[in-house]
TrEMBL record:
Name of protein: Chloride channel protein
Protein species of origin: Pygocentrus nattereri (Red-bellied piranha)
Residue ranges annotated for the CBS domain, each copy included: 608-672, 705-763
Single GO term (MF): antiporter activity
Main location: membrane
Amino acid sequence: MAEAEGISSATPTEEMNGAGNLMDFLDEPLPDVGTYEDFHTIDWLREKSRDTDRHRKITNRSKESIWEFVKSLLDAWSGWVVMLLIGLLSGTLAGVIDLAVDWMTDLKEGVCLSAFWYSHEQCCWTSNETTFADRDKCPQWQKWAELMTGHTESAGAYVLNYFLYVLWALFFSFLAVSLVRVFAPYACGSGIPEIKTILSGFIIRGYLGKWTLLIKTVTLVLAVSSGLSLGKEGPLVHVACCCGNLFCSLFSKYSKNEGKRREVLSAAAAAGVSVAFGAPIGGVLFSLEEVSYYFPLKTLWRSFFAALVAAFTLRSINPFGNNRLVLFYVEYHTPWYMAELVPFILLGVFGGLWGTLFIRGNIAWCRRRKTTQLGKYPVLEVIVVTGITAILAFPNPYTRRSTSELISELFNDCGALESSQLCDYINNPNMSRPEDDIPDRPAGPGVYMALWQLALALIFKIVITIFTFGMKIPSGLFIPSMAVGAIAGRIVGIAVEQMAYHHHDWIIFKNWCRPGADCVTPGLYAMVGAAACLGGVTRMTVSLVVIMFELTGGLEYIVPLMAAAVTSKWVADAFGKEGIYEAHIRLNGYPYLDQDEFTHRTLATDVMRPRRNEPPLSVLTQDSTTVEDVETLIKETDYNGFPVVVSRESERLIGFVQRRDLILAIKNARQKQDGVVSNSVVYFTEDAPQLPASNPQPLKLRRILNLSPFTVTDHTPMETVVDIFRKLGLRQCLVTRSGRLLGIITKKDVLRHMAQMMNQDPESIMFN
């Protein structure tokens, strides 16, 4: 992915003969001129000006006839149409994924005899023999051992169920990794680091293609159903962006302009989070805070519309049967008290420490995968991790079920009708039972048993997630992070609740916790813990709090959530500024300029190429270079473009021409324009140069010349240069002194320089 770094020099042919008819064959736009090659960075300024020109033309034409006016209206509405289509498709796919995951997760344990496509819950809904107390048991749903041997409780039945659980998990994960490897290698992982890079202006062809969309959707279901410690939320953002890219190709306004396409992809990312969490506003804020690079006000509106349509579509499908968009929607009825901010902040500290541990552990493991033999056996790695996960998960009821169900149970408040082990409190026989407001009670044996199991589940989740994220299957990080936090939060919540019950005369409980009152909600602690851990890993703040309160429907819990999110970010930032996505971007060497301050006192002249002892800059002259010279220069160098100067002696800058545009223009001229041969003169001026009559016909390429390339002087501080690259999305910037060309700075040069300033190996951060 060579950027324009021009270093070597090309000798012009001194003698040129002949001149013929002059013709600027580029008066008509050429196909593919102005497009980009794979793994190159787009030129945001050029894309913006091209869109402005296109818009001006449409506006002028719209006054000519009714038909042109209708076309201009269609063009104006195309953005909203694309948003509508993205919302409909991503909402539908999310609903299908949710239903399929539900069924296939239950398939590991048993099957519904009345209709094999029903999940456990759906099977028992339709049964007339289900009682409320045993709502999980019905004759239509049979575990595999019961179906095969007729026994349900024997040791042999347990072993058989255990064996089949592991076998199904291995089958699902093997199928997922095989499909990814054979059909769509880009469908692995979360997708958010790559989408952040693409939205910053990098081109990765095929990453958002049709095959990637299809395979990611199918393998996401398989990966989540296999019981691995991963979620579907991050990959749903990738799926939604694939939908956005698919619909962009229907409208030339977006398919031919990479800058406009990225506006659509920003909105698609919002729709992805909207269906992942049932949080349309949180989705828009996530796109703005976490993934987008360029987010104009117009995109904000359109993101909101796409997220709304996606959420509405998912609500219409109703995949969980609870008229909610997520499985773990909860409502709490008791207020929180100021003294509880202490455990909430402690959960924030835990979230920050977990985030730091996870990022360091996961990046170390992924680096090992890249640099050792381990990376050559992706299928074996997935099989081994799935096997270990399934074998360790089955004995513990909290790790055996799907992570979403686990989070749902941890978030839930213990009502009068709850049958969960976590709600096995000792009831006072004289107590009257209102529906919601059950007073704090002493914990029963079931709660203590559950606490031990949760503690083991916490250790298991912390360790296994480090090795799972980054394997060659679709894997999200939101749900495992939330599970770690929810388990820790629930344990803390039960501890605080029992302290308040047994020591209500202590000064901290005296003011707000009377005997017989419902003081502490352990489910709220689980929710705060989940937010803290997710914040520690991703470093989200505002969007995280909004997503969490959209999940719970409770505005009064914003302060605990904010306290935990801010604390976790502070603690995690104390150990390193990078979130998990930025860390993976750096590990893969994507050319992504993050928003951190550049504080070093270097100048443009310290960074520009060519340096001392390097060959001079590769340049083209405005009217004395031949076609052969240009082709030789293109063949011998791999730079992304070339500055055009008046002459080699004066080095006065005229403009900049892209390598790809040059190749296409010369190829086209040789095919379509008579008289263009190797020693034809290429000129970039308005008028043809004075040439002898015997010379072959010259070739005018002024149309592909950028007459206003971005330039800085050699004494511009690098702080300013970095800011310019970041805010304008430049590919390269020319360095001049008094109009004379001195050198060039590319995005790669800036990234290398920033790495050097942070004492990192500048080559290790480059995309390979």
